[in-house]
Amino acid sequence: MAFYKKLKSYDDEKADWISDRLIKLRETMRASELGRRDSKNLVIGSWNIRAFDEGTPRRDESFHYIAEIIDHFDICAVQEVKSDLEPLKRLVRLLGPSWDYFVTDVTEGGPGNRERQAFLFNTNKVRFRNLVGEITLPRDALIDGEQIARTPYFASFQAGWFRFTLVSVHIIFGKDKTRRRKEISSIAERIVKRAKDENEVYVLIGDMNIEERGDSIYRGLSDHGLTVPVFGPTNLGGNKFYDQIAFTGERVKTSLVNSGTFDWRGDVYGDVDKAAYKKIAKKMRKEQGKDMYSDWNKSYQAHFASFEMSDHLPIWVEIRTDYSDEYLERFLRRNS
Which domain holds residue 198? Predict the structure, then answer.
Protein backbone atom coordinates (compact mmCIF):
# COMPACT_ATOMS: atom_id res chain seq x y z
CA MET A 1 0.00 0.00 0.00
CA ALA A 2 1.26 3.48 -0.87
CA PHE A 3 2.57 5.48 2.08
CA TYR A 4 0.63 8.55 3.23
CA LYS A 5 2.83 9.60 6.17
CA LYS A 6 4.16 12.55 4.19
CA LEU A 7 0.70 14.15 4.31
CA LYS A 8 1.32 15.04 7.98
CA SER A 9 4.10 17.42 6.95
CA TYR A 10 1.78 19.54 4.80
CA ASP A 11 -0.43 22.36 6.03
CA ASP A 12 -4.09 21.51 6.63
CA GLU A 13 -5.35 22.97 3.37
CA LYS A 14 -2.80 21.11 1.25
CA ALA A 15 -3.28 17.82 3.10
CA ASP A 16 -7.06 18.15 2.70
CA TRP A 17 -6.75 18.86 -1.05
CA ILE A 18 -4.48 15.87 -1.71
CA SER A 19 -6.39 13.48 0.56
CA ASP A 20 -9.71 14.31 -1.06
CA ARG A 21 -8.37 13.49 -4.51
CA LEU A 22 -6.57 10.36 -3.33
CA ILE A 23 -9.82 9.05 -1.88
CA LYS A 24 -11.63 9.71 -5.18
CA LEU A 25 -8.82 8.07 -7.11
CA ARG A 26 -8.89 5.01 -4.84
CA GLU A 27 -12.67 4.69 -5.16
CA THR A 28 -12.45 4.80 -8.96
CA MET A 29 -9.67 2.22 -9.04
CA ARG A 30 -11.54 -0.13 -6.68
CA ALA A 31 -14.59 0.07 -8.95
CA SER A 32 -12.55 -0.57 -12.10
CA GLU A 33 -11.51 -3.88 -13.66
CA LEU A 34 -8.11 -3.32 -12.10
CA GLY A 35 -9.69 -3.12 -8.65
CA ARG A 36 -11.33 -6.49 -9.19
CA ARG A 37 -8.10 -8.31 -9.99
CA ASP A 38 -7.40 -11.64 -8.28
CA SER A 39 -4.73 -11.10 -5.62
CA LYS A 40 -3.13 -14.42 -6.60
CA ASN A 41 -2.50 -13.19 -10.14
CA LEU A 42 0.20 -10.83 -11.38
CA VAL A 43 -0.57 -7.33 -12.65
CA ILE A 44 2.07 -5.86 -14.97
CA GLY A 45 1.74 -2.15 -15.71
CA SER A 46 3.38 0.29 -18.10
CA TRP A 47 3.37 4.05 -18.01
CA ASN A 48 5.16 6.71 -20.01
CA ILE A 49 5.33 9.44 -17.35
CA ARG A 50 6.00 12.56 -19.34
CA ALA A 51 9.54 13.95 -18.86
CA PHE A 52 9.87 12.48 -15.35
CA ASP A 53 11.13 14.83 -14.02
CA GLU A 54 12.60 17.61 -16.11
CA GLY A 55 11.92 21.29 -16.37
CA THR A 56 9.45 22.66 -13.84
CA PRO A 57 9.37 20.23 -10.88
CA ARG A 58 6.10 18.39 -10.37
CA ARG A 59 3.86 19.45 -7.51
CA ASP A 60 3.85 17.37 -4.33
CA GLU A 61 0.32 16.19 -5.03
CA SER A 62 1.32 14.76 -8.42
CA PHE A 63 3.81 12.37 -6.81
CA HIS A 64 1.09 11.06 -4.51
CA TYR A 65 -1.34 10.44 -7.39
CA ILE A 66 1.28 8.72 -9.55
CA ALA A 67 2.32 6.51 -6.60
CA GLU A 68 -1.30 5.59 -5.88
CA ILE A 69 -1.83 4.37 -9.43
CA ILE A 70 1.43 2.42 -9.65
CA ASP A 71 0.73 0.82 -6.28
CA HIS A 72 -2.22 -0.98 -7.92
CA PHE A 73 0.28 -2.84 -10.13
CA ASP A 74 2.71 -5.50 -8.91
CA ILE A 75 5.42 -4.41 -11.34
CA CYS A 76 5.50 -1.39 -13.63
CA ALA A 77 7.75 -0.34 -16.50
CA VAL A 78 8.21 3.43 -16.60
CA GLN A 79 9.43 5.28 -19.67
CA GLU A 80 10.78 8.84 -20.00
CA VAL A 81 12.64 8.88 -16.70
CA LYS A 82 15.10 11.76 -17.10
CA SER A 83 18.64 12.37 -15.87
CA ASP A 84 17.88 13.41 -12.28
CA LEU A 85 17.04 10.25 -10.32
CA GLU A 86 15.78 11.97 -7.18
CA PRO A 87 12.15 12.22 -8.46
CA LEU A 88 12.17 8.46 -9.16
CA LYS A 89 13.58 7.75 -5.68
CA ARG A 90 10.92 10.02 -4.18
CA LEU A 91 8.23 8.08 -6.02
CA VAL A 92 9.58 4.76 -4.73
CA ARG A 93 9.63 6.12 -1.16
CA LEU A 94 5.95 7.01 -1.50
CA LEU A 95 5.23 3.47 -2.70
CA GLY A 96 6.64 2.12 0.57
CA PRO A 97 9.43 -0.19 1.79
CA SER A 98 8.17 -3.28 -0.05
CA TRP A 99 8.92 -1.61 -3.41
CA ASP A 100 12.25 -1.71 -5.23
CA TYR A 101 13.44 -0.54 -8.65
CA PHE A 102 16.00 -0.84 -11.47
CA VAL A 103 16.83 2.01 -13.79
CA THR A 104 19.05 2.37 -16.87
CA ASP A 105 21.66 4.96 -17.64
CA VAL A 106 20.55 7.82 -19.88
CA THR A 107 20.45 7.17 -23.62
CA GLU A 108 22.76 9.63 -25.32
CA GLY A 109 22.23 11.27 -28.70
CA GLY A 110 19.39 13.34 -30.12
CA PRO A 111 16.91 10.50 -30.69
CA GLY A 112 17.76 9.06 -27.27
CA ASN A 113 16.52 12.27 -25.64
CA ARG A 114 18.64 11.54 -22.53
CA GLU A 115 15.96 9.19 -21.26
CA ARG A 116 16.13 6.33 -18.80
CA GLN A 117 13.85 3.33 -18.41
CA ALA A 118 12.85 1.93 -15.03
CA PHE A 119 11.18 -1.14 -13.52
CA LEU A 120 9.37 -0.61 -10.21
CA PHE A 121 8.20 -3.76 -8.44
CA ASN A 122 6.55 -4.89 -5.23
CA THR A 123 8.93 -7.36 -3.62
CA ASN A 124 6.02 -8.98 -1.77
CA LYS A 125 4.65 -10.12 -5.14
CA VAL A 126 7.61 -10.23 -7.53
CA ARG A 127 11.10 -11.68 -7.17
CA PHE A 128 14.05 -10.44 -9.24
CA ARG A 129 15.91 -13.32 -10.88
CA ASN A 130 19.29 -11.59 -11.08
CA LEU A 131 19.38 -11.01 -14.82
CA VAL A 132 19.36 -7.56 -16.45
CA GLY A 133 20.61 -6.34 -19.79
CA GLU A 134 20.01 -4.42 -22.98
CA ILE A 135 19.01 -5.61 -26.44
CA THR A 136 21.37 -4.49 -29.17
CA LEU A 137 21.35 -5.46 -32.83
CA PRO A 138 24.15 -7.37 -34.59
CA ARG A 139 25.88 -5.58 -37.44
CA ASP A 140 23.90 -7.37 -40.15
CA ALA A 141 20.59 -6.34 -38.55
CA LEU A 142 21.27 -2.64 -37.97
CA ILE A 143 18.45 -0.29 -38.98
CA ASP A 144 19.82 1.95 -41.73
CA GLY A 145 23.23 1.35 -40.18
CA GLU A 146 22.11 2.32 -36.67
CA GLN A 147 21.13 0.70 -33.39
CA ILE A 148 17.66 1.16 -31.89
CA ALA A 149 17.48 4.83 -30.84
CA ARG A 150 16.54 4.11 -27.22
CA THR A 151 18.08 0.81 -26.25
CA PRO A 152 15.48 -1.74 -24.99
CA TYR A 153 16.05 -2.74 -21.36
CA PHE A 154 15.19 -6.14 -19.90
CA ALA A 155 15.16 -7.88 -16.54
CA SER A 156 13.97 -11.31 -15.40
CA PHE A 157 11.44 -11.84 -12.60
CA GLN A 158 9.22 -14.48 -11.05
CA ALA A 159 5.77 -14.25 -9.49
CA GLY A 160 4.41 -17.50 -8.10
CA TRP A 161 4.86 -20.16 -10.77
CA PHE A 162 5.24 -17.57 -13.51
CA ARG A 163 8.78 -16.81 -14.71
CA PHE A 164 9.17 -13.99 -17.22
CA THR A 165 11.55 -11.48 -18.75
CA LEU A 166 10.23 -7.95 -19.05
CA VAL A 167 11.53 -5.88 -21.99
CA SER A 168 10.78 -2.16 -21.79
CA VAL A 169 10.92 0.05 -24.89
CA HIS A 170 10.30 3.61 -25.97
CA ILE A 171 10.20 3.45 -29.74
CA ILE A 172 11.45 6.45 -31.69
CA PHE A 173 8.77 8.93 -32.82
CA GLY A 174 8.65 11.24 -35.84
CA LYS A 175 7.36 11.26 -39.39
CA ASP A 176 9.44 8.24 -40.39
CA LYS A 177 6.96 5.46 -39.68
CA THR A 178 9.17 2.98 -41.50
CA ARG A 179 11.87 3.47 -38.88
CA ARG A 180 9.31 2.87 -36.12
CA ARG A 181 8.11 -0.34 -37.75
CA LYS A 182 11.66 -1.59 -38.22
CA GLU A 183 12.54 -0.95 -34.58
CA ILE A 184 9.49 -2.80 -33.28
CA SER A 185 9.88 -5.65 -35.75
CA SER A 186 13.57 -6.11 -34.91
CA ILE A 187 12.88 -6.25 -31.18
CA ALA A 188 9.89 -8.56 -31.58
CA GLU A 189 11.87 -10.95 -33.77
CA ARG A 190 14.65 -11.19 -31.21
CA ILE A 191 12.51 -11.72 -28.13
CA VAL A 192 10.45 -14.42 -29.87
CA LYS A 193 13.69 -16.24 -30.69
CA ARG A 194 15.00 -15.78 -27.16
CA ALA A 195 11.75 -17.03 -25.68
CA LYS A 196 12.01 -20.21 -27.72
CA ASP A 197 15.72 -20.76 -27.10
CA GLU A 198 15.46 -20.11 -23.35
CA ASN A 199 12.02 -21.67 -22.78
CA GLU A 200 11.07 -18.36 -21.18
CA VAL A 201 8.11 -15.98 -21.40
CA TYR A 202 9.10 -12.58 -22.79
CA VAL A 203 6.87 -9.56 -22.20
CA LEU A 204 7.48 -6.56 -24.48
CA ILE A 205 6.12 -3.45 -22.85
CA GLY A 206 6.15 0.32 -23.20
CA ASP A 207 5.51 3.30 -25.42
CA MET A 208 5.70 1.92 -28.94
CA ASN A 209 4.27 5.01 -30.65
CA ILE A 210 1.70 2.92 -32.50
CA GLU A 211 -0.91 5.25 -33.95
CA GLU A 212 -3.56 2.73 -34.99
CA ARG A 213 -4.16 -0.87 -33.98
CA GLY A 214 -3.53 -2.96 -37.07
CA ASP A 215 -1.36 -0.41 -38.89
CA SER A 216 2.06 -1.25 -40.31
CA ILE A 217 3.80 -0.30 -37.05
CA TYR A 218 1.48 -2.52 -34.99
CA ARG A 219 2.06 -5.40 -37.38
CA GLY A 220 5.70 -5.30 -36.36
CA LEU A 221 4.39 -7.01 -33.21
CA SER A 222 1.60 -9.22 -34.49
CA ASP A 223 3.49 -10.54 -37.53
CA HIS A 224 5.98 -12.21 -35.20
CA GLY A 225 3.29 -14.09 -33.31
CA LEU A 226 3.19 -12.01 -30.13
CA THR A 227 -0.11 -11.84 -28.25
CA VAL A 228 -1.28 -8.22 -27.99
CA PRO A 229 -4.37 -7.50 -25.83
CA VAL A 230 -6.70 -4.67 -26.85
CA PHE A 231 -6.07 -1.57 -24.73
CA GLY A 232 -7.68 1.20 -26.72
CA PRO A 233 -6.22 4.70 -27.12
CA THR A 234 -3.64 5.74 -24.53
CA ASN A 235 -3.01 9.39 -25.43
CA LEU A 236 -5.04 12.14 -23.79
CA GLY A 237 -6.63 12.99 -27.12
CA GLY A 238 -8.14 9.50 -27.25
CA ASN A 239 -7.07 8.68 -30.79
CA LYS A 240 -3.60 7.06 -30.60
CA PHE A 241 -2.64 3.56 -29.49
CA TYR A 242 0.87 4.44 -28.41
CA ASP A 243 1.32 2.09 -25.46
CA GLN A 244 1.20 -1.69 -25.73
CA ILE A 245 2.03 -4.89 -23.85
CA ALA A 246 2.79 -7.96 -25.97
CA PHE A 247 3.95 -11.37 -24.83
CA THR A 248 5.03 -14.83 -25.91
CA GLY A 249 3.66 -18.18 -24.80
CA GLU A 250 -0.08 -17.50 -24.79
CA ARG A 251 -2.06 -20.60 -23.72
CA VAL A 252 1.23 -22.43 -23.17
CA LYS A 253 3.12 -20.54 -20.51
CA THR A 254 1.13 -17.31 -20.30
CA SER A 255 -2.55 -17.19 -19.36
CA LEU A 256 -4.01 -13.69 -19.80
CA VAL A 257 -6.84 -12.99 -17.36
CA ASN A 258 -7.61 -9.33 -18.05
CA SER A 259 -6.16 -6.11 -19.43
CA GLY A 260 -6.97 -2.43 -19.66
CA THR A 261 -6.03 1.23 -19.32
CA PHE A 262 -6.64 3.54 -16.40
CA ASP A 263 -7.89 7.08 -17.00
CA TRP A 264 -7.01 9.23 -13.98
CA ARG A 265 -8.47 12.47 -15.34
CA GLY A 266 -11.87 12.14 -13.70
CA ASP A 267 -10.32 12.27 -10.22
CA VAL A 268 -7.09 14.28 -10.46
CA TYR A 269 -6.29 17.26 -12.66
CA GLY A 270 -9.77 17.01 -14.11
CA ASP A 271 -11.98 19.75 -15.52
CA VAL A 272 -13.70 20.26 -12.16
CA ASP A 273 -10.46 21.76 -10.80
CA LYS A 274 -9.55 23.81 -13.88
CA ALA A 275 -10.34 27.18 -12.26
CA ALA A 276 -8.38 26.36 -9.09
CA TYR A 277 -5.37 25.22 -11.09
CA LYS A 278 -5.50 28.35 -13.23
CA LYS A 279 -4.59 30.41 -10.17
CA ILE A 280 -1.81 27.97 -9.30
CA ALA A 281 -0.45 27.97 -12.85
CA LYS A 282 -0.48 31.77 -13.00
CA LYS A 283 1.59 31.98 -9.82
CA MET A 284 4.00 29.29 -11.01
CA ARG A 285 4.53 30.97 -14.39
CA LYS A 286 5.16 34.33 -12.72
CA GLU A 287 7.78 32.79 -10.41
CA GLN A 288 9.47 31.31 -13.51
CA GLY A 289 9.47 34.68 -15.26
CA LYS A 290 7.00 33.45 -17.88
CA ASP A 291 3.70 34.81 -19.13
CA MET A 292 0.49 32.97 -18.34
CA TYR A 293 -0.80 30.55 -21.00
CA SER A 294 -2.59 32.53 -23.69
CA ASP A 295 -5.38 29.94 -23.93
CA TRP A 296 -5.85 28.23 -20.57
CA ASN A 297 -8.71 25.98 -21.70
CA LYS A 298 -6.54 24.58 -24.48
CA SER A 299 -3.33 24.39 -22.45
CA TYR A 300 -4.77 22.91 -19.26
CA GLN A 301 -4.82 19.21 -20.22
CA ALA A 302 -2.42 19.43 -23.16
CA HIS A 303 0.35 21.09 -21.16
CA PHE A 304 -0.17 21.84 -17.47
CA ALA A 305 -1.93 18.64 -16.37
CA SER A 306 0.08 16.43 -18.72
CA PHE A 307 3.37 17.66 -17.26
CA GLU A 308 2.04 17.11 -13.74
CA MET A 309 0.78 13.58 -14.49
CA SER A 310 1.45 12.48 -18.07
CA ASP A 311 0.32 12.77 -21.67
CA HIS A 312 -0.17 8.98 -21.64
CA LEU A 313 -2.59 6.74 -19.75
CA PRO A 314 -1.11 3.74 -17.93
CA ILE A 315 -1.93 0.26 -19.24
CA TRP A 316 -1.90 -3.12 -17.51
CA VAL A 317 -2.36 -6.87 -17.92
CA GLU A 318 -3.39 -9.44 -15.32
CA ILE A 319 -1.67 -12.79 -15.76
CA ARG A 320 -2.31 -16.06 -13.97
CA THR A 321 0.58 -17.24 -11.77
CA ASP A 322 -0.76 -20.30 -9.93
CA TYR A 323 -0.52 -23.61 -11.82
CA SER A 324 -0.30 -25.83 -8.76
CA ASP A 325 -3.51 -27.79 -9.48
CA GLU A 326 -2.32 -28.73 -12.95
CA TYR A 327 1.06 -29.72 -11.57
CA LEU A 328 -0.42 -31.96 -8.88
CA GLU A 329 -2.74 -33.62 -11.37
CA ARG A 330 0.31 -34.91 -13.22
CA PHE A 331 1.00 -37.22 -10.25
CA LEU A 332 -2.50 -38.62 -9.87
CA ARG A 333 -2.80 -42.38 -10.41
CA ARG A 334 -6.07 -42.96 -12.13
CA ASN A 335 -7.82 -46.35 -12.42
CA SER A 336 -8.38 -47.23 -16.03
Answer: 5-262+311-320
